[in-house]
Structures are given as C-alpha cells and as structure tokens.
Structure to design on (700 residues):
C-alpha cells in the first residue's frame, strides 16, 4: 500500500525457528478488514489440518484493525488468533486483550504480528518501530507476568507496551493467558507462546497513524459519540440508582456514578456524583467498577479507574489494599469483571471476614486476581472454579488423587473460608504439580481423563454449554434463541456482547422492542426476559447481526463491550443510538466510502471464513450434529415448567433445531448440515476456500 490511511500498511512476520524477520503488505488482507479477519486468513492458508496447538507448525497472529490508533473511542483491542488447546479438535479460536498493546503496534508500523516456528531456548521479541530483534529471555523464563513485564521494561524503557506469559504458559497449561498492562489478558492462548519459547513481546512505536479525513471531522465525530451515544461499561445507558436527570434506572447497570460514591483512596477522594450525559469530561466517572465488582468495601480502597488507550470508559478498578501484603502479594491491584469474580469462584465454601467486616469476598477476589494474573492462569470464563467444586464435592477428586497428594492439599483452609487456599490452588495448576494440576487442561480433557459422567456434562450447576467443552457466556439466558445461536457458532465460549449490550442496557423492554423492530424488522426479534416465545425469522436476523457486528469489531479492532451504539442515554434522541457509526469512522479514517451494508458484508466474509476453517479442521460437513450442539441441561432445567413459560429460560429441542435452520438460511449455509455452500463462499469472495473444501469433499 503506497499510501495507507487507517491501516499501518505492514505485517510483521517472525520465524522463531530460523530467526528470520520479514514484513509484508497488509493490502493482501484488506478484504478481511484487520484483526480477526487477518488471523483467520493466515490460519486457513498456512496451518495444516491436524496440527497440534503446541507444534512448531502452528502460528499465532496478533492483529489490529484500521480504527485502532486512529483516535476513535474504545479502539485499542488486540485480536489473538491461533489453534485452541482446550477444544477437542484444536480448532481455531480467538482471544482478545485491551490495554495499550494494539495502539503501540500500529504506531510501530504494523497491523499484525505473525509468529511462527519455535525457538531453541527462551526468547522475547523486541520491536522499536522498524528495528525488530529476537532477544535472549533466559533470565525471564520462570518469572511471573509482573516480573517479566518489569524486566522487559528495564531494557526498553517505560514507554514500552509489553505482552507476556507467566509460568502457566511456559509449562504449557492449556488454561493460560497472554497479558499486557498487568491485567489486560487474552485467555486460552498463553501456552502457544510457551510452546514457541516466546516469553514476551515488547513494543515501542514512535510513529503515527495517517487518517484520510480532517482532524476536526474526527474530533466532531468523537464529540457526537461521547455526548449523545455512549453509555457506561457494556454500554449501559441508564444509572443504577434513581437520579433527577434520568427517566429510567436499573439496579444492574454499570453506570454506578451517584452522589456520595467515591474513588475513596484517591488523593483527595473523587466523588463520582450524578453524571448526566452530554459532558465529555465526566464520562470516565460513570463506571465505578470497584464497588460493582468487589462490593461496598472496595470504595475506600479505590485509587482510580483505569482502562485502555483511547477509551473514555474506565472499567478497570485500580486499588491499593495494604492487607494483601500479608498474603505475600502486592498491595496494588487492577482488574475487572471475571478477573475478580473467577478466583472467588474457587472458594466454594465461601470466605470469612479477614481484616474488617464484610471483607472476605473482597480479599478473596483481589488476592485471587493477582495470583492468577501473575502466574498467567485462565479461568475459562469461570469454569475452573465450577469444575473444582464438582470434583471436590462429588468425591471424584479423592478418587483420582493419590492419598498422599489429596492429604497434601490444605482443604482445611478452603473449608474455613480462608483465601490463603488460593495460593496453593494456583501454584499446583501453574507448575503441573500432581494429578490435581490437570484442572488446568480444560473441561473436555479433564472429563476424559477422570471419566466424568453425564451428571457432570449435563448438570446445570457446571454451566457447560457444548460437548466441545466450553461454558455458557451470554447464551440462552440472554435473548433466548438469539443467545443460544450465538453460543453455538464459535470454537470456545462465545465472547459476543452485541446482543447482551442491548438486552442489559437498562432501558425498559418496550423501548428495546421498538429498537429491535427498527434494526431487524419486528419487535418479535426481542423477547422479554424469562418470557420467551418460539423461534421466528427476526430472531435469526438478530442473531446473525449480533455475530457479524462482533466479528466486525474484532476486525476493526474496537471493543465489543461498548460497540455497537444501538441505544443512547439521551432522552432527546428517544434513546436511539446510531448503528452506522462504525461505517462513519471507517470512511473518515480510511478515506474510502464505507456503509453499514458494506462493512457488514465484509464481516460476514470473515465469519464465513471461520466456519469454513472449522469445517476443514473438523473434517466433517455435519456442523448441525457435530458442532452446533447444546448440553441437555439447557432443555431440562426447571422440570416443573414448560418451555416458553414465563419465569424460565429453558429451551425446547425441536424449536432450537428450527432456530438453527433459520440461522443457516440467513447465513446462506446449507440448511441440512450448517456448512457454507459453494455459492455463498463464492459470493463472499472466498472461492479459494470453496476450492479447498471441494477437494476435501467438504462442500454440501
């Protein structure tokens, strides 16, 4: 690309086996937008079927998109694509991280980094604009993520953005992460870097990103978004408490700002206050996530809210808790959402007060988040704790462990509600100490190893969504068939928040049904919570649109926790958002004429390539019966109630088959198998995939 706007124009390729470092033109991937799209194209073209995730032949792609680094809000996301260790077929999957890493990559001049091969010994990758080198990481190997980050920074300087793995990734624990900024993690791919002996990537980018439009136009668009469209974390657009400026409120909203609620440990303390929409300078006060994630006790320990480059929504609470030093960890902690709640899920007997009234859960969450983050252990969206609960309480753990190993685990701490148990728990998994450590293999693999039966797979408490071994993540409980369909389509837990952000925005359901009619053609696309109706074509459109926008965001790359702007906090707009905002930014940044339709079509191409790659890797056409399968508990919960009865979120088997058929029709996939057809692949410019699948007898 001679002149590139939005895209940096180059992709960095690093072969760790032979030390070769090259660049190539991003233009060859432009039809796939960026980020996720680049990752799928590389994996489809270059990684042979049957490759194990930890083989040297596997590749991992760190991808960004044309909006990252442009100044567009909520746009510093890194999409990480590789084979996935936890699913049984090791199919392609993505993980994601925020922070500053993506923007630094763009400012260094790269839209993506492709890492291939395997180093002979521990190395780290040093990137300073066009100066790239593979460095010795011997002194970092064996260190946690925190120390590794500090060691890389000591060599590169404080300006460096650093992504690293902990000891869990080094030891090829399937449930491991890649993390930048001490708490922005991409879950499930840490062991890929460990297998390649790549401990960290450090980047300093001193360049800039060219945009085609005028700076004033970009600033005006930002102002429009921040004043009229954006809400709080997850784009919740109403406050959590009644306030004079707000027509509506919702207890579950992450718009927690209110009078008398502070960043209590700031100097001086900062009151969040009543923050009506319209003032750009106070957007960052809307989400006091410390109390949302950690409870009221967190208020006095909250120093500030942090987050990602270019994002006004500060969803990472940053706290100073001196008591944590008594557990041998730092007093400073930063995290959000599952980073806090998942470690507490390991404390299956609850926690007791540690230092003050009602601080047990608070200490458990903050201690556990530090341990897991430093070791680089991934929670598999909370499954790790639920699996531990099952094998411990069912007696299975005592059965599969030797008596000596079982007795060496300090269960007395667990039973007493002492969060010090977490130190032993995470250490065993990280360093693969004994049979217990196989909890780090992931759901599918421990079920096979320990012969866990139907009550494990189909028990509601475990929340296993698929026989491929991944959990519920905004599934049937979020939008009925819409959430269920979305959760069937990926090769790991669904990380799509598109539908969730609408459903949980806090606005009354009647307004959300009106919005649904405007976007998908009928109010019938939207079900009232726990008041579900049978499948219809509009729900299929809602599901497709949600996935397509999710894929679009992970390719642009912008935050799917915040985008798209379907609704607004502004009453004068009748609470309507602007679903064309992505195309407005793309046109402004790249200088090319993008519309909603053209961007959605590009995202559909990316998602269909994901499906084609999944067919190729599974070696079967029958996606309906071998991939898009839901565990029985989703159909069997609440046995005293029938599906479509108010008060239950259970699904009905025949109706879900209808839902799959309708969704396949929307995608242009074969209705019988759920595999992409030749006509659809060709229509989307994926004729190369059609030819390859046809040669493998994998076209319907």
């Amino acid at each position: 690309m001679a002149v590139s706007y939005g895209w940096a124009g180059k992709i960095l390729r690093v072969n760790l086996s032979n030390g070769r470092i090259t660049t190539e033109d991003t233009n060859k991937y432009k039809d796939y937008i960026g980020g996720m799209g680049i990752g799928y194209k590389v994996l489809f073209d270059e990684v042979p079927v049957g490759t194990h995730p930890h083989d040297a032949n596997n590749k991992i792609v760190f991808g960004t998109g044309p909006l990252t680094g442009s100044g567009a809000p909520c746009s510093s996301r890194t999409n990480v694509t590789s084979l996935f260790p936890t699913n049984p077929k090791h199919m392609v999957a993505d993980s994601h991280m925020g922070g500053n890493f993506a923007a630094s990559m763009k400012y260094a001049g790269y839209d993506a980094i492709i890492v291939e091969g395997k180093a002979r010994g521990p190395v780290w990758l040093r990137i300073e604009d066009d100066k790239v080198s593979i460095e010795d990481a011997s002194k970092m190997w064996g260190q946690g993520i925190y120390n590794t980050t500090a060691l890389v920074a000591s060599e590169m300087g404080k300006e460096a953005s650093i992504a690293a793995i902990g000891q869990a990734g080094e030891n090829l624990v399937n449930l491991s992460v890649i993390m930048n900024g001490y708490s922005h993690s991409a879950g499930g791919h840490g062991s890929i870097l460990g297998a390649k002996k790549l401990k960290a990537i450090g980047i300093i980018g001193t360049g800039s990103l060219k945009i085609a439009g005028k700076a004033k136009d970009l600033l005006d668009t930002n102002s429009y978004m921040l004043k009229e469209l954006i809400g709080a974390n997850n784009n919740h657009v109403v406050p959590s408490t009644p306030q004079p400026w707000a027509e509506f409120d919702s207890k579950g909203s992450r718009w927690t700002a209110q009078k008398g609620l502070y960043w209590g440990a700031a100097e001086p303390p900062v009151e969040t206050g009543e923050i009506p929409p319209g003032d750009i300078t106070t957007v960052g006060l809307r989400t006091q996530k410390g109390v949302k994630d950690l409870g009221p006790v967190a208020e006095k320990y909250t120093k500030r809210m942090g987050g990602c480059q270019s994002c006004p929504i500060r969803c990472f609470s940053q706290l100073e808790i001196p008591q944590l030093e008594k557990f041998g960890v730092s007093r400073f902690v930063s995290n959000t959402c599952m980073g806090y709640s998942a470690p507490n899920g390991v404390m299956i007997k609850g926690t007791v007060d540690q230092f003050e009234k009602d601080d047990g859960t608070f200490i458990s969450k903050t201690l556990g988040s530090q341990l897991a983050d430093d070791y680089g252990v991934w929670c598999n969206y909370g499954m790790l704790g639920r699996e531990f609960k099952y094998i411990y309480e069912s007696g299975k753990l005592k059965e599969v462990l030797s008596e000596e190993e079982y007795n060496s685990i300090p269960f007395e701490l667990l039973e007493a509600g002492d969060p010090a148990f977490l130190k032993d728990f995470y250490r065993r998994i990280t360093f693969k100490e004994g049979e217990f450590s196989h909890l780090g293999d992931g759901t599918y693999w421990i079920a096979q190893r320990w012969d866990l039966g139907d009550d494990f797979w189909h028990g509601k408490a475990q929340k296993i969504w698929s026989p491929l071994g991944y959990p519920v993540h905004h599934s049937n409980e979020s939008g009925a068939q819409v959430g269920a369909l979305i959760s069937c389509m990926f090769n790991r837990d669904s990380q799509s928040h598109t539908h969730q952000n609408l459903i949980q925005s806090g606005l009354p359901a009647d307004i959300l049904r009106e919005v649904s009619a405007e976007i998908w053609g009928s109010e019938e696309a939207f079900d009232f919570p726990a008041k579900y109706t049978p499948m219809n074509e509009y729900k299929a459109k809602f599901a497709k649109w949600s996935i397509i926008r999710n894929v679009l965001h992970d390719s642009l790359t912008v935050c799917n926790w915040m985008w798209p702007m379907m609704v607004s906090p502004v009453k004068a707009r009748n609470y309507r958002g602007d679903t064309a905002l992505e195309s407005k930014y793309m046109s402004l940044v790249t200088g090319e004429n993008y519309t909603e339709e053209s961007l959605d079509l590009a995202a559909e191409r990316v998602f269909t390539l994901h499906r084609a790659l999944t067919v190729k890797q599974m070696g079967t056409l029958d996606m309906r019966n071998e991939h898009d399968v839901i565990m029985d508990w989703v159909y069997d919960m609440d046995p005293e109630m029938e599906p479509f009865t108010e008060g239950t979120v259970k699904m009905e088997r025949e109706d879900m088959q209808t839902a799959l058929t309708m969704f396949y029709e929307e995608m242009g996939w074969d209705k019988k198998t759920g595999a992409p057809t030749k006509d659809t692949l060709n229509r989307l410019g994926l004729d190369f995939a059609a030819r390859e699948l046809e040669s493998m007898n994998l076209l319907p």
Q: What stands out?
A: Residues 10-204 form a domain with the Aldehyde Ferredoxin Oxidoreductase;  A, domain 1 fold (CATH 3.60.9.10).
